[in-house]
Structures are given as structure tokens and as C-alpha cells.
């Protein structure tokens, strides 16, 4: 995550033309959340509100995206650390406003970054049911308890964009296989406790 | 499918038939199509897993129907020969051999485990990891659990499904399983 250049800070001062503090706040949030590919359309939407050219709007949006992402990447949480990112001659009030907005959002933004990082498909839901098989075409009477488990798994959000693909995996477990599973899960739990205590 | 069977080398075809018979006999939980396909491809044969799966399904159906009708080896070979597109000679040889050795032993099973209407759980592998850093956060320290479930689908084909859970999700996952086990006990 490259640090910001002079051009970026010059572009940020375009925010002085913003109609209100809330408009600045809104734009900061949109610039952080937007992936690089969606910045140009965002600039086109934001430009008119700031009464600037399309080119200037684009420079601003990219700069704001870089600034917010840089703060999250470095994990900066204190006002002093954010303030000293700005050059000496940067507009004082704007600097304070941007720092304030960033501090307000930093924890939500960090969560957003973690949630959208690359990963294997994620478990999003699980449902289960215990049945008793009482008969079939080959066996007239029986009483076999069996468990049906349905896991809903969502493919990598980063790959699917706004239309995440969720697939359902339905699995049948007998008492034996369920015990195998429990044993495995118990070991994970033990490992977690061991790691947490370090 | 017959023309694709032609591509599979004899020893791999024999292995496939073996696995199918063993699965029908409940000696193994499923047919490891993916792994077999990988090895066939490594040996230089251009076959994809979809085709191999279709072949496995057809053979499975062939063997189980033959078992149900108590076909002798000669009857089975005759039936094969009377099909629309004849199987390659080496394939018929393998089928004849496998059926001779093990075909009669396929029990028309009385086991309740036979009613596979959904996937059957075979195995679970897990990993506990901590994501240290990413392109969005230089210092993450984000713990997560990765699980790979091995499942035999209704046709007996084995597939793996992997997914990730956060720690709170894992705790809930574990809790649900304990509850399932206690219900299974008492039911």
C-alpha cells in the first residue's frame, strides 16, 4: 500500500468545495468501500456535487481511496499518527475534519477489509434435523436414527462481487460418523484454548 | 461414454471397476473419481472428470443391475456385446475378469445404510490458522478454522468441500454438533 504523494494531497484539497461536512463524510465512506475498478463511476457521480471537472473529481476520489485504505492497511488508530500523514502546508481545518472522519470509521472499515479479504468459501448457515428411518422397500421395520445436515457455503465474496454464489451441501450422518466429526471438532476446540492461553 | 472408455488404459479401468464393486459391496464409502482422474491425466491421457464420472455411473448401474438379476459372467458379457456401441475389447476383458472374481459376492443389501438419498459423510479434515497480513491490513492477526468435508454423493462419487469459519462461527458449529449427538442418543 503505497504512501500518498503530493499530487494526492493537492487533490484532497478539492474537498474544500464540498457543500457540507456530511458530504465529505459520505464521500470518504464511499471511497473506502469502493474497489479500484468502481472509482471512476463514483467520481462521475460525485463531480457535479463539488462543482469540479471530471478530471479533478477523479483525482480526488482516487486520493481519498488511497488515504483511507492506507490508514486501514497501516492499522493507524491514533489521531497524531493520522495527522502526521498530511504535509505541512495542508489546510488545517480540512486536515482535522478528515482525521476526525477517519477515526470515526476506522473500526468499521477494518472489519470490512477483513470480511472482504481473500478466503476459502465461507460457511454462512447450517441447518440440521434428526430423523428415524422406520422402513424401506427392502426392510419392513427398523428404527435407525440418522442426522441430516445442510450447510450453506458462500463462494469467495471477492470473486463474486455483488452476487455471491451460495451452494448448499446436504449430508447424512450416522451416529458413528457424527462421533467422528465431534472428535475432530473437540480437537480444534482444544487447540483454540491452547493458543488463547499463550 | 463407450468412446471415452476406449481412452482409459487397461490397468486404470480395472482399478475403477474394482472400486465400483467394492463400493457396491459396502467395503469402501465411495469411488475416488477425482484422485483416479488426476492419475490418469498424469499418465498422459486426456480425459476430464465429468466424463470419468459418467463412465463410473454407467458401470455402477451395469454391475448393480447384473447383481440384482443374478447374471452369470457369460450372460453379462453377452449383454455388453448387444449394446448400441460395443465396448473396446480390453474393457470387456476387465469386466469379465472382475465379475468372475467378485460379481457374485455383491449382496442385494439389507443394510439400512443403503438408502442414500443425500450425500454420505466420509471424513473431516481441519486446520486452525491465523491470517497475519493481507493486502488490505498489514497487521491482521485474524484466527480462522478451515474444514474440508469428504462426502460420497448419491452415486458413490467422492468429493471434497472446503470452507472457512470465524472463531465464533466455529463455536456455534461445535455446539450444534453436540446438540445433534445428544438428540441422536435420546431418540
From TrEMBL, chain A:
Pfam families, alphabetized: COMM_domain, COMMD9_HN
Domain of life: Eukaryota
InterPro entries associated with the record: COMM, COMMD9, COMMD9_N
Residue span, COMM domain: 122-196
Protein name: COMD9 protein
Organism: Acrocephalus arundinaceus (Great reed-warbler)
Lineage, broadest ranks: Eukaryota, Metazoa, Chordata, Craniata, Vertebrata
Gene transcribed to yield this protein: Commd9
TrEMBL record, chain B:
Occurrences of domain COMM (ranges): 120-187
Source superkingdom: Eukaryota
Molecular-function annotations in GO: NF-kappaB binding
InterPro entries: COMM, COMMD4/6/7/8
Pfam family, one: COMM_domain
PANTHER family tied to this protein: COMM DOMAIN-CONTAINING PROTEIN 4-8 FAMILY MEMBER, COMM DOMAIN-CONTAINING PROTEIN 6
Homology family: Belongs to the COMM domain-containing protein 6 family.
Known function: Scaffold protein in the commander complex that is essential for endosomal recycling of transmembrane cargos; the commander complex is composed of the CCC subcomplex and the retriever subcomplex. May modulate activity of cullin-RING E3 ubiquitin ligase (CRL) complexes. Down-regulates activation of NF-kappa-B. Inhibits TNF-induced NFKB1 activation.
The protein's name: COMM domain-containing protein 6
Organism placement in taxonomy: Eukaryota, Metazoa, Chordata, Craniata, Vertebrata
